[in-house]
Amino acid sequence: MRRDSNDLVKGDEISIFELLKMVWYHKIMIFAITIASILSAAVYTFTISPIYEARVYIIPPSSNDISDLNKGRGDSSGLGLITPSQVYATYLESLSSESLKKDFYDSVYLASSSNQIGDRAAALAYSKFQEQVRVVKDTGDKYYVQFEALNIEQGLSWAFAYSQLAGERARKDVISYVENDARNVVKNLEQKIRRDRDRARLERADQIAFLREAAGIAKSLGIEKGPALLCPAMYTPVGSLEGSLAYMRGSKALEAEIFSLENRKSDDPYIKNLRESQGVMEFYSNIEINPSNVRLYQVESSTNIADAPVKTRKSLIIIVGGVFGFFLALLLALVHQLWLRHSRVGQ
After folding, report:
1. Pairing relationship of beta strands 52-59 and 298-299 according to DSSP bridges
2. What is the rounded distance in angstroms from the CA atom of residue 344 to the CA atom of residue 8?
3. In sequence order, what E strands does the chain have?
4. Each residue of 219-228: pLDDT tens digit?
5. How many whole angstroms separate alpha carbon 104 and alpha carbon 133?
6. Of 22, 120, 188, 225, which has fewest CB within 10 angstroms of its CB?
7. How far apart are CA 304 and CA 54, in angstroms?
């Protein structure tokens, strides 16, 4: 029994010579199956829809494209100038984000389809959509948005819409950043003006106190009117030792000045650089950026549309079909040869 088993194993071995004989013996079947596979592949290539690629090439903006963003920036403003490379980096970040894909799929891609699909089908469609769109770095700072579509015009329309949607989202972020900087400048100036006014109010109160004391001294000495020419020391600011001769101005002059200080409606005219600060604050308060004047990217003129389908490689599919048919025929011939051997062994 053991010997019969070994003979059977040896009987299953096929030499190269036997293999060539088998191929020759089954040549008609192998040829027929190979031709049938080639014809099937050819029919398949002519029945499936071709896929085209459309590309929109993206390059950085110019300085003029973002000039509105630099209003009130640079020089002594404390706000650094915004460069084209900075806004372009923001745009590329938006262009490559997953949230942009989802937003574009919901607002543009599905809207261009006339078929209503369920939740499960929508999930599958989104997965397929993710394979259709690509953001690819080309050379230097150049990138391109590539869309695969059944229709050339549709693919190009999607590629442009995708790049524009990314630009709108990034532009909102950049403008919000610039406007926030302007608001911070206004806030800081408001605080500065408030401090200057508080200081002026306290200085006026100190000056009134100083003059009251001087007026009291003048009254006690009977000096109602001071001499026509007074030395500058009599008008020295509050807190200075030389101002101790202010009583020499006379009680009437001192009381008149006290009355004027007490009834002053505003200290603004006496605050140094106040009007300049108010002007700067008004400028930053009125900064408005028109989104239509801001471009974070440019579309290069060499936008490319594939002239021939890129997904449906007809010749490759036909060759693969022929190779598959040939090896399938060989496998069937080999199975048939082994079956014949087993049949002879059984007899």
Report:
1. antiparallel
2. 11
3. 52-59, 133-137, 143-149, 298-299, 304-305
4. 998 888 877 5
5. 11
6. 120
7. 6
Name the band, by pLDDT with cuts 50, 70 and 90, for residue 346: low
Distance CA 287, CA 242 (A): 49
Tokens, residue 31: 């040829």
Of the given ranges (127-131, 258-262, 270-274), which has the lowest mean pLDDT?
127-131
Q: Does residue 269 come out as left (phi exceeding 0), alpha (psi in the -120 to 50 range) or beta?
A: alpha
pTM of the complete model: 0.67
- In degrees and rounded to multiples of 5, residue 327 shows phi and psi of -70, -30
Write down the number of H helices and E strands in the chain: 10, 5
Candidates 43, 86, 265; CA nearest to 178 is 86
Q: Strands of 138-221 (E only): list them.
A: 143-149
Which structure tokens are listed for 155?
């693919």
**Averaged pLDDT for residues 267-289:** 93
DSSP letter for 10, please.
Answer: H
User: Is the separation of the CB atoms in 312 and 48 below 8 Å?
Assistant: yes
Instruction: Give the pLDDT band of residue 251 (cuts 50, 70, 90).
Output: confident
pLDDT for res 179: 93
Instruction: State both tokens at 247.
Output: 């009583």
Could you tell me the two tokens for 190? 């408001």
Token couple for 106: 């919901």
Give the rounded distance of the alpha carbon of 307 from its chain centre.
31
Two structure tokens written together for 250: 């006379």
